[in-house]
Write a structure and sequence with these properties.
The protein is of the alpha+beta class. 22% of the residues lie in helices and 26% in strands.
C-alpha cells in the first residue's frame, strides 16, 4: 500500500564502494541479473540440453570445465547448485562430487532451479508488452528489503517466466506499486520505462481504483477515516498525528470502510483507498478500535484494553480489485482477485 515510487537511479560515476554496490543492486532489481564476476566478456550461452561422458577421477565442476572451457568456474558451480546437472539420471547439486569416469553427465537448462524449491508460485493475472500484474501470495515481499532477500514478487514473476520457457532475466521489472508483505492480492509492475513513468503518475496522483477485503475485530460501522500518518506517532510505531499542528505534518491518508457482513466477533469489510500509505488500512482500523484479524503490529491498543485477539495464521487483508488506465494504450483495465484458501478458511470459521 506504499505509494508508487521510481526505482533508485545511481549516479553515472560512483566514487565509493557503497555507490558501486547501490548501482549493482539497482541493476539486479530491474533485470534479475547480478553483475558479472571477473572478466566483463560474457561466455556464450550453453545449449538448452545435452550430455557427455565423464573423464576419470575428477570433480563434477572439473568435468564441466573440460566440456565448457569458455565458462567460468563460478558459473559452472552455479549450474550445479541450481539443479540443472544430472549424473546417470539423478540430479546432483554438489559441484565437488568426485567422478570415477564413464558416468553420463547431462545438463538441462530448462530444469527448475533447485534453489527455488519451496517457493510459492504466483498467478500472472495480466501481461502485455508494457505491464505484468500478479496475484501476490501472503508472506511474500513485493520487493527485496535488502540485497540478500530472495523469494520476492519480482523473483516469483521470473520463476513463472522460466516455467513458460522464457528468458526470465531478459525483461526488466520496474516497481510502481506495492502492498505489504503480509497482504495478499493484486500488484502491478512495469516492464518498460515508458510504462513505468505512466504508472508512476497513476499511483502518485491516486488515479487507481483499489479495494481490499479485510476482516476486523468487533462490530465495524461503515465510515470514512482521514488522518495524517507519521512514522512514529509517539509510542514507537507508525500512526496518526492527533496534535493541533497535525494539519501541517505527516501524510494525508483517507480510507473508506464499508461493513459488508457481521461475523462472530468480527466484521468483513470492503475497504477503498483514496491514498496509499504504508500500512494505511491496518493503522486506520486499529486506531478506530477494530484491528485486523491476524494483526501482529497494530494490536497493542486492543491488548491494553483487555481484548482477546481472534486467532488466525495470517493477516486477513487482501487486495481484491485493481483498476487503472493503461499508461500506453489508454484502455481502461480492471482486475479482481478471489480470496485465497488460507483467508477463506478463517473467514468460514468466523461465519459459523
Amino acid at each position: 500500500m506504499k505509494p508508487a515510487a521510481k526505482p533508485h537511479r545511481p549516479s553515472a560515476a560512483p566514487t565509493s564502494g557503497k555507490a558501486v554496490a547501490r548501482k549493482a543492486a539497482a541493476r539486479q532489481a530491474a533485470t534479475g541479473q547480478a553483475a558479472p564476476d571477473g572478466d566483463a566478456t560474457a561466455a556464450p550461452p550453453l545449449p538448452d540440453r545435452g550430455s557427455f561422458l565423464a573423464p576419470p577421477d575428477v570433480t563434477l565442476a572439473a568435468a564441466l570445465r573440460g566440456r565448457f572451457p569458455d565458462q567460468s568456474w563460478s558459473a559452472l558451480r552455479r549450474l550445479c547448485i541450481s539443479g540443472k546437472i544430472s549424473i546417470g539420471g539423478e540430479t546432483v547439486t554438489d559441484h565437488a562430487a568426485r567422478l570415477t569416469g564413464g558416468e553420463t553427465i547431462e545438463w538441462r537448462m530448462s530444469a527448475r532451479d533447485a534453489r527455488r524449491a519451496g517457493r510459492p508460485s504466483v498467478r500472472i493475472v495480466h501481461e502485455d508488452v508494457h505491464l505484468v500484474l500478479i496475484d501476490k501470495p501472503q508472506g511474500v515481499s513485493t520487493v527485496p528489503f535488502d540485497r540478500k532477500e530472495t523469494g520476492t514478487a519480482l523473483d516469483l514473476i521470473r520463476d513463472a517466466w522460466r516455467l513458460q520457457g522464457r528468458r526470465a532475466t531478459a525483461t526488466p521489472l520496474y516497481v510502481v506499486h506495492r502492498i505489504d508483505k503480509d497482504t495478499s492480492g493484486l500488484v502491478v509492475f512495469a516492464k518498460t520505462k515508458l510504462a513505468e513513468r505512466g504508472l508512476h503518475q497513476v499511483f502518485k496522483n491516486h488515479l487507481a481504483d483499489r479495494t481490499y477485503l479485510a476482516v476486523a475485530h468487533g462490530d465495524v460501522r461503515s465510515q470514512r477515516i482521514e488522518s495524517r500518518l507519521v512514522p512514529d506517532r509517539g509510542d514507537g510505531i507508525r500512526g496518526s498525528l492527533r496534535a493541533p499542528q497535525a494539519s501541517e505534518q505527516g501524510q494525508l491518508s483517507v480510507t473508506n470502510v464499508v461493513a459488508e457482513q457481521p461475523l462472530r466477533g468480527a466484521t468483513l469489510c470492503r475497504v477503498q483507498l483514496e491514498t496509499g500509505r504504508t500500512h494505511q488500512i491496518r493503522i486506520h482500523l486499529s486506531e478506530a478500535h477494530h484491528p485486523l484479524v491476524g494483526e501482529t503490529v497494530y494490536i497493542r491498543d486492543l491488548l491494553r484494553a483487555g481484548g482477546k485477539p481472534i486467532s488466525s495464521p495470517r493477516l486477513l487483508l487482501h487486495a481484491h480489485t485493481l483498476g487503472f488506465e493503461h499508461p500506453i494504450t489508454r484502455a481502461r483495465l480492471a482486475f479482481e482477485s478471489p480470496l485465497p484458501p488460507d483467508y477463506l478458511e478463517v473467514l468460514e470459521r468466523l461465519r459459523r
